[in-house]
């Protein structure tokens, strides 16, 4: 080793961000291991690399004791003071024992250490870069598909899209360009492992934040998301600014903003509803596109009964209960949906109590609320659902 080698290490420090001192310490440790392995030495030893010239030397180390039992690791106080009168018990006496043909082994070992440290540094850089991006979106190209896992190329590394995180209606082909949500970044012996998802609700959230400037600026808030990936999603949005329509902002001019997201998600339908602090109004809007006649809530149990026109019942429930299920996920409320005919059977005076043609607007009248105790209560609704 020489000064050129040190210059090369300094260049690596600038390019890869690996400290020269860290590299030299690693090389010293590797050279010591190589020395003991190749020369069968059982003695204590130390390898030192001169930071100015790059020259290396191997030193044997022996402890100063009263009487030496093993000359390879110990030296008597009398012998030590013959070398230097300043030695005392417990000191270490060092002698240079650098083998003549150790240069070739040293060069090979240094190369292996440097290559290994460069690889580790690059892995750490990649890990730090992507671990800080958990919860964000990345864009990559499908590199290959193995055992149903989709590997997405990201330049110096790749991300893994496992079968459980793939959308059921999507087919992935080599060369496809797609966006994915970073779920987790793990450190492994083979480098960082980046796990991504196409089904995570966070993907929908980040796509809206990218498309809607009002969300980025904080003018509009995305309060809640419910998603059945590949089929349908619902989001609830809100704005403190009365002059801003949060739903319109997310839909965009001529529906372009939401349409871009629908295209990215291969046709997944998206309902955008306005969040409301009043749970009855929030639950009613969550069942969009169905129209709601009235809502009664039990706040302690977070249960809501929703009344819809007869012709809207199937729309409110949705195919295989999907609309009602997503509305429940979105609001966090248990929702029981009844048609007006069903309500009339349960409560004969229903049509008299509720103003079906005018002031009902979408919610129960005061008289209707007063007599509502004759209906099954929230705990009965829960028991009915469990059956």
TrEMBL record:
SMART domains (UniProt xref):
KH, S1
Q: Which UniProt keywords apply?
A: Cytoplasm, RNA-binding, Transcription, Transcription antitermination, Transcription regulation, Transcription termination
Q: Where in the cell is it found?
A: Cytoplasm
A cellular component term from Gene Ontology for this protein is: cytosol
Please list the GO terms describing molecular function. Answer: DNA-binding transcription factor activity; RNA binding
- Which GO biological process annotations does it have? DNA-templated transcription termination; transcription antitermination
Please list the residue ranges annotated as the S1 motif domain: 135-199
> What is the documented function of this protein?
Participates in both transcription termination and antitermination.
Task: Cite the PANTHER family for this sequence.
Answer: TRANSCRIPTION TERMINATION FACTOR NUSA (PTHR22648), TRANSCRIPTION TERMINATION_ANTITERMINATION PROTEIN NUSA (PTHR22648:SF0)
| Quaternary structure annotation from Swiss-Prot or TrEMBL | Monomer. Binds directly to the core enzyme of the DNA-dependent RNA polymerase and to nascent RNA.
| Protein family (similarity comment) | Belongs to the NusA family.
Q: What is this protein called?
A: Transcription termination/antitermination protein NusA
Q: Which organism is it from?
A: Desulforamulus hydrothermalis Lam5 = DSM 18033
């Amino acid at each position: 080793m020489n000064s050129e080698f040190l210059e090369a290490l300094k260049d690596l420090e600038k390019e890869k961000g690996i400290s020269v001192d860290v590299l030299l310490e690693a090389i010293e440790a590797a050279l010591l291991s190589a020395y003991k392995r190749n020369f069968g030495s059982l003695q204590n030893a130390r390898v030192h690399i001169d930071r100015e010239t790059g020259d290396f030397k191997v030193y044997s180390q022996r402890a100063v004791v009263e009487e030496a039992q093993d000359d390879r690791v110990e030296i008597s106080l009398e012998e030590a003071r013959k070398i230097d009168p300043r030695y005392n018990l417990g000191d270490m006496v060092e002698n240079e024992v650098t083998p003549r043909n150790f240069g070739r082994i040293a060069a090979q070992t240094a190369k292996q250490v440097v290559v290994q440290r460069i690889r580790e540094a690059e892995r750490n850089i990649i890990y730090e870069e992507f671990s800080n991006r958990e919860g964000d979106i990345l864009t990559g190209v499908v590199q290959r598909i193995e055992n149903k896992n989709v590997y997405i190329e990201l330049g110096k590394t790749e991300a893994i899209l496992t079968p459980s995180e793939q959308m059921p209606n999507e087919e992935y082909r080599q060369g496809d360009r797609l966006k994915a949500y970073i779920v987790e970044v793990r450190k492994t012996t083979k480098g960082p492992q980046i796990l991504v998802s196409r089904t995570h609700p966070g993907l929908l959230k980040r796509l809206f934040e990218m498309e809607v400037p009002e969300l980025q600026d904080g003018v509009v808030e995305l309060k809640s998301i419910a998603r059945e990936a590949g089929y349908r999603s619902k989001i609830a949005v809100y704005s403190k600014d009365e002059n801003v329509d949060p739903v319109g902002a997310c839909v965009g001019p001529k529906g372009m903003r939401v349409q871009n997201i629908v295209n990215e998600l291969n046709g997944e339908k998206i309902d955008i509803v306005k969040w409301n602090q009043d749970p009855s109004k929030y639950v009613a809007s969550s069942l969009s596109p169905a129209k709601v006649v009235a809502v009664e809530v039990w706040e302690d149990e977070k249960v809501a009964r929703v009344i819809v026109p007869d012709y809207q019942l199937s729309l409110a429930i949705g195919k295989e209960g999907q609309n009602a299920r997503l509305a429940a996920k979105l609001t966090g409320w248990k929702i029981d949906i009844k048609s007006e005919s069903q309500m009339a059977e349960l409560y004969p005076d229903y049509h008299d109590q509720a103003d079906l043609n005018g002031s009902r607007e979408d919610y129960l009248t005061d008289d209707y609320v007063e007599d509502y105790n004759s209906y099954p209560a929230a705990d009965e609704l829960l028991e009915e659902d469990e059956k």
